[in-house]
Structures are given as C-alpha cells and as structure tokens.
Amino acid sequence: MGIKENIEDIQKTINSACTEAKRDNKEVKLIAVSKTKPGSDIKKAFETGQKDFGENYIQEAMDKIDEIGKDGINWHFIGRLQSNKAKFAVKYFDYIHSVDSLKLAKEISKRAALENKTQKILIQINTGKEDQKSGIMPESAEEFFENASMLENIKILGLMAIPPFGMPEKETEKHFILLKNTLNDLNKKFPELKMSELSMGMSGDYTAAIKQGATMVRVGTAVFGERK
C-alpha cells in the first residue's frame, strides 16, 4: 500500500480506538514521523491532508523544512535535543516534544525571546527510569516544573514519553498510565499551566496509548514504511 492508504488505515484505527475508549477522535493528533524519509514522501502525505510531521535530527529536518516550507504544516521536533541546537529547533519547529532538562528549557526560552515567539514544548518524562534514555524522572517532575513554569517564552503543553522497547502491551500500558497520572498530578499543582497534551504511542502501541489518554501519537513506519 501507498502512503495515502497507510494514513487512511491509521486514521480508521485511531477512530476505532477512540470509540472503544469513549473519546472524541478529534482529541487525538497523528504525527507522521518522517525521519530519514525524503521530502517527496512528506509531500505525498501532506497531499492526503496530513498536517503534522515529526523529525528527530536537526540538520536533516532543516533541509526538509527549507525544501517544503511551513505553510499548512505543523513541524514537531521529537528527537533528543542538545542545548547548542536549541536555536535551530526554535527557528524551525512549531512544537518541541523532547525537553528533558531545565538547562534546555532555559535555552529554548532564551532563543524564543530572540525570535519574538513563545515556543510550544512538551516535557519528556523517563517513565522507565532508564539510564540510556533522556527525560525527567517522574518523582522529580514537580521540582522541575516549579522552575520551568517561570520561564517566559515557553508554553508547556503537556508531557511526552518513550516507554522501554520490546515490552508486552500490558507492561507498556503501565508507562502510559504513569504519564497520564503524572500530568494529572502536575495540573493540580500548577493549574495555571492548563496542560492537556500527552505525546505517547508509536507504530507498535499507539492504540494502547490512545486508550490511556494520548492526544498525540508519533507514527512513522506504519505511515511511510520500513526505514533503510
């Protein structure tokens, strides 16, 4: 099947998962993860009505965005972001999902001020407490937010997580539930932020994520096919 058919199938699956979870399907945004894929594939997806695209690597993304443009597209940075690349992420991206330290949040806010914008971000939570993975530990989230919520040129929309790979669905669901509960707890502590976004779920587990409250699902392989 082609990209158009893939997106149609994914949207049907999203709709079914929302129905099962008694949710409005308008609450769930499909982010087509286009890393390593050519601009021509993104254009094909865009022509089907897909508006949100996720990229993991700054230089690759900059080249594509320069080629394709921003008109009608929401660009999401979902990869690990180093502080010295924050200025590029702020310039090119509408959303940054992977903010994993106060240092990075401060740098993004500083760069956003220079661009005269308020950068939309999500905070990455390390739900599996994995040494090799980025993110704020769940038990440190409140302390992080006490500081990050003071930054003027960022808008914290919610949380993002990448559960440990290769787990059974039931185990993966526990990570989605943890992220949802963390968001609920933070909203009680920081009601002024009015956070509503949960970026969780990828090609193999996005239906489980939707059932646990995902508002953004990051799907690459199921949209564009296997990466070389």
Question: What is the element string, with H for helices and E for strands?
Answer: HEHEHEHEHEHEHEHEH
Structural class: alpha/beta
Radius of gyration, CA atoms, in whole angstroms: 17 Å
Largest sheet: 8 strands, parallel
- Number of β-strand runs: 8
Specify the overall morphology.
globular
Explain this structure.
The mean pLDDT is 96. The chain has a single domain, classed as Alpha-Beta Barrel (TIM Barrel). Helix 3 links the parallel strand 2 and strand 3 (74-77). It is α/β, with parallel strands linked by helices and 228 residues long. An eight-stranded parallel sheet has the order 7-6-5-4-3-2-1-8. Helix 4 (86-92) crosses helix 5 (102-114). 43% of the residues lie in helices and 17% in strands.
Which structural traits does this protein have?
single chain; about 230 residues; alpha/beta; TIM Barrel; eight-stranded parallel β-sheet; 9 helices
What is the gist of this entry?
This protein is of the alpha/beta class. The protein is 43% helix and 17% strand.
Give the arrangement of secondary structure elements.
Layout: H1 3-20, E1 29-33, H2 39-47, E2 52-55, H3 58-68, E3 74-77, H4 86-92, E4 95-99, H5 102-114, E5 119-124, H6 141-148, E6 154-160, H7 169-189, E7 197-199, H8 206-211, E8 216-219, H9 221-224
Parallel strand pairs: 1-2, 1-8, 2-3, 3-4, 4-5, 5-6, 6-7
Helix pairs in contact: 4-5
